[in-house]
């Protein structure tokens, strides 16, 4: 039969794949459902739980009018991909869904499509997080998926004064126990020739 657009999962059991289950539906943005794009993360693994994230975006454009010998011409210019949300899906060791959650994104846009939201299983808690610019956004639940710490955003670095603003590209990865590795580059906007991006590496504890 007809299958809706979205993200499907199929349980492998009794030496065969079972009927696919739809986990993420396409969303309509401004009435243009076909414009919505999905990216699916890698599988995040814990001792008894597994998760994946399906993030949704839509392309955003602006229109620019130019004149050639008095004749107007309108061009559509691509601005980037606007985030909609991230749909998190957690499964047990048998492949059955145990929790779903829609993680909102607030006014975020990128020029290259890649997944951002990550899920990490700690001993007693589950942490969901992503980095954007110099900020880190987190949310924590317990192992029964009760909210322990709501969505919050922390600015990790001073982005500099108005005369020499600073940009960051961050990456956060689980290391061991409650410790994470934060790495990335720091660079000045409008840097003069000879000023190079600075690589940094930090150890962080989630508590």
Secondary-structure map with pairings?
Layout: E1 6-9, E2 12-13, E3 16-17, E4 21-25, E5 37-40, E6 44-45, E7 49-68, E8 71-92, E9 97-104, E10 109-110, E11 118-121, E12 125-132, E13 135-142, E14 147-155, E15 166-176, E16 179-188, E17 198-205
Antiparallel strand pairs: 1-4, 2-3, 5-7, 6-7, 7-8, 8-9, 8-10, 11-12, 12-13, 13-14, 15-16, 16-17
Task: List its salient traits.
207 residues, mainly beta, 6-stranded antiparallel sheet, 4-stranded antiparallel sheet
CA-based shape: flat
Number of helices: 0
Number of strands: 17
Percent of sequence in beta strands: over 45%
* Distance between the first and last residues' Cα: 49 Å
> Which class of secondary structure composition applies to the elements?
mainly beta
Rg, rounded, reads 21 Å
What's the rounded overall pLDDT mean? 82
Biggest beta sheet summary: 6 strands, antiparallel
- H/E element string? EEEEEEEEEEEEEEEEE
Considering DSSP H and I runs of 4 or more, what fraction of the residues is helical? under 10%
Can you tell me the residue ranges where pLDDT is under 50 for at least 5 consecutive residues? none
């Amino acid at each position: 039969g007809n299958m809706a657009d979205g993200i499907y999962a199929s349980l492998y059991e009794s030496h065969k794949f079972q009927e696919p289950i739809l986990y993420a539906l396409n969303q309509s943005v401004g009435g243009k459902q076909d414009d919505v794009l999905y990216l699916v993360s890698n599988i995040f693994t814990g001792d008894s739980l597994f998760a994946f994230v399906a993030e949704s975006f839509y392309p955003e454009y602006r229109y620019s009018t130019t004149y050639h010998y008095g004749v107007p011409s309108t061009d559509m210019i691509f601005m980037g991909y606007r985030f909609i949300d991230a749909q998190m899906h957690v499964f047990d060791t048998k492949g059955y869904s145990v929790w779903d959650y829609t993680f909102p994104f607030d006014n975020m846009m990128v020029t290259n499509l890649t997944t951002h939201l990550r899920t990490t299983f700690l001993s007693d808690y589950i942490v969901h997080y992503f980095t954007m610019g110099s900020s880190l956004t987190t949310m924590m639940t317990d192992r029964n998926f009760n909210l322990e710490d709501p969505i919050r955003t922390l600015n990790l670095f001073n982005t500099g004064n108005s005369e020499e603003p600073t940009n960051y590209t961050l990456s956060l990865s689980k290391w061991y126990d409650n410790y994470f590795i934060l790495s990335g580059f720091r660079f000045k906007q409008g840097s003069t020739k000879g000023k190079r991006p600075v690589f940094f590496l930090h150890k962080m504890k989630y508590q």
